[in-house]
Design goal:
About 35% of the residues lie in helices and about 30% in strands. By secondary structure, it is α+β, with helices and mostly antiparallel strands. The protein is globular and about 55 Å long.
Length: about 260
């Protein structure tokens, strides 16, 4: 994939990611959010996950004034509701943005590769193999999904179940999956289809089952279903440890996103 094409796909995928966050906010109980005219999104799910209470720019050159206005609103709501929040940018913040984040105690920083994959060849992905089965879940199985995902991330299940409720998992375009063996569920993840783009989100494997290829089989299924539902491109934010897995599936790093968070 040439750099110009990769950059173009990243622009479209970043916009779709913003739209996916807006959809999530529209169905999570108690969540609120709004978009600014310059490509900045305020999305507050009120969960205890900073990345899901976010002021986020989906454009390469963010509008500092718009981010500052929405950050003030986020800080006020976070103080009132007792939840953490973050500022998320494509690329890194400039000095002024860093100072503004610091005013709210957001002095920590984390970076994640933003990866994209054209789904033109997704239908050719290999079928599920061995003893691992991947199953799409209905909304009434949200507690099972929360338990597996929480185990994978080392978080309390109630944090996950309060976010990914039955109503959320029954929302068109949002699909939860678990990978199972005869011993039970071993991995979980989400596929979110918006604007012809598939977001591969929150993929996690339970600690005792890591390193066995279960996440790969899960992601292959998510990609297949996304392609079947009409998505032409997949995207995700990867941890550094998972980059190799996603590269083996054809994803390429388009850019790096930065989150400014509280310490």
């Amino acid at each position: 994939m040439d750099p110009k094409s990769l950059a173009s796909q990243a622009d479209a995928a970043a916009h779709a990611f913003g739209s996916a966050m807006e959809r999530l906010v529209s169905v999570v109980p108690g969540a609120t959010g709004r978009s600014g005219p310059q490509g900045t999104l305020l999305a507050l799910t009120r969960s205890q996950i900073p990345a899901l209470n976010v002021v986020m720019s989906t454009v390469k050159e963010p509008d500092a004034g718009e981010i500052a206005d929405l950050a003030a609103e986020a800080a006020q709501e976070a103080d009132r509701g007792g939840f953490p929040w973050s500022i998320r940018l494509r690329g890194g913040p400039d000095e002024a943005m860093t100072r503004k984040a610091g005013e709210y105690g957001l002095t920590g920083r984390s970076e994640q590769p933003f990866m994209v994959l054209p789904l033109t060849d997704a239908s050719a992905l290999p079928p599920e193999t061995g003893q691992v089965r991947v199953r799409a879940l209905g909304g009434d199985e949200y507690n099972e999904f929360a338990e597996v995902l929480a185990a994978g991330f080392g978080a309390p299940a109630v944090i996950i179940s309060s976010l990914y409720t039955s109503a959320v998992l029954d929302t068109p375009g949002i699909t939860a999956y678990v990978a199972e063996t005869d011993g039970g569920a071993v991995a979980a993840g989400l596929g979110v289809v918006v604007e012809g783009h598939l977001g591969v989100i929150n993929v996690a494997t339970t600690p005792q089952h890591r390193g066995k290829g279960h996440a790969r089989i899960l992601v292959e299924r998510i990609l297949k279903d996304g392609r079947a539902s009409g998505a032409h491109t997949a995207y995700l934010h990867a941890t550094e440890e998972a980059v190799g897995l996603f590269e083996s599936l054809g994803f390429r790093t388009a850019e790096t996103w930065t989150s400014l968070i509280g310490n």
